[in-house]
């Protein structure tokens, strides 16, 4: 996305656009991406406005909680038994992209519904020499420190976002992670009960 914005900055004049007036917009996961673009050092001087709808990088599912576990599971689903990082990286680096996408797409929706997590979401990156990190610290830290892009932001929501048939135990599925409670704990059950009695 950062590279696309760089391309727009350099080429939008050919389409009658103004490189000093680029607005990014995203909905749901796109809202997460848009909010990340306002915080990333890669794009700070590339955007002039942002529209964020039904999702921000503050959502519990906006980042991967355990990227190594996710990579290991993906590699395993494709037949790799390596447990070490180097072996997994070598395997995934040499696997055709089509195979990676197909295998990942089979687990993504299930993970979101069962665990309230997206398997391959952004990560807070470590900084390496010669490598540009999109975000090297938490979005919350960047946001609360005021180091996001100083641009106008419009935020809204979509009615009935991610509507689907829900299970009776839905609050037990999503609430614990959002509140930092252990899933299946007495505290999680009590919070779910209090919330459900409010509706």
TrEMBL record:
PANTHER family: CARBOXYLIC ESTER HYDROLASE
Pfam families: COesterase
Recorded superkingdom: Eukaryota
Entries under InterPro entries matching the protein: AB_hydrolase_fold, CarbesteraseB, Carboxylesterase_B_AS
EC top class, as a word: hydrolase
EC number(s) stated in the UniProt entry for this protein: 3.1.1.-
Keyword Glycoprotein: yes
Residue ranges of every copy of the Carboxylesterase type B domain listed in the record: 1-163
Record keywords, A-Z: Disulfide bond, Glycoprotein, Hydrolase, Serine esterase
GO MF entry, a single one: carboxylic ester hydrolase activity
Family to which the UniProt record says this protein belongs: Belongs to the type-B carboxylesterase/lipase family.
Organism: Papilio polytes
Protein name (Swiss-Prot/TrEMBL): Carboxylic ester hydrolase
């Amino acid at each position: 996305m950062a590279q696309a914005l760089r391309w727009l900055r350099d080429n939008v004049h050919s389409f009658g656009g103004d490189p000093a007036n680029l607005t990014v917009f995203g909905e749901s996961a796109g809202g997460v991406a848009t909010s990340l673009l306002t915080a990333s050092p890669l794009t700070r001087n590339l955007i002039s406005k942002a529209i964020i709808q039904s999702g921000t990088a503050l959502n519990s599912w906006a980042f991967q909680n355990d990227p190594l576990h996710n990579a290991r599971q993906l590699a395993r689903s494709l037949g790799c038994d390596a447990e070490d990082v180097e072996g997994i990286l070598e395997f995934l680096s040499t696997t055709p992209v089509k195979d990676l996408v197909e295998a990942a797409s089979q687990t993504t929706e299930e993970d979101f519904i069962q665990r309230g997590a997206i398997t391959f979401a952004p990560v807070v990156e470590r900084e390496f020499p010669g490598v540009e990190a999109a975000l090297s610290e938490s979005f919350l830290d960047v946001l609360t420190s005021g180091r996001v892009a100083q641009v106008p932001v419009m935020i809204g929501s979509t009615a009935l976002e991610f509507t689907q048939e829900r299970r009776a135990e839905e609050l037990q599925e999503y609430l614990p992670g959002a509140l930092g409670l252990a899933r299946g704990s007495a505290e999680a059950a009590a919070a779910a009960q209090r919330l459900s009695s409010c509706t």
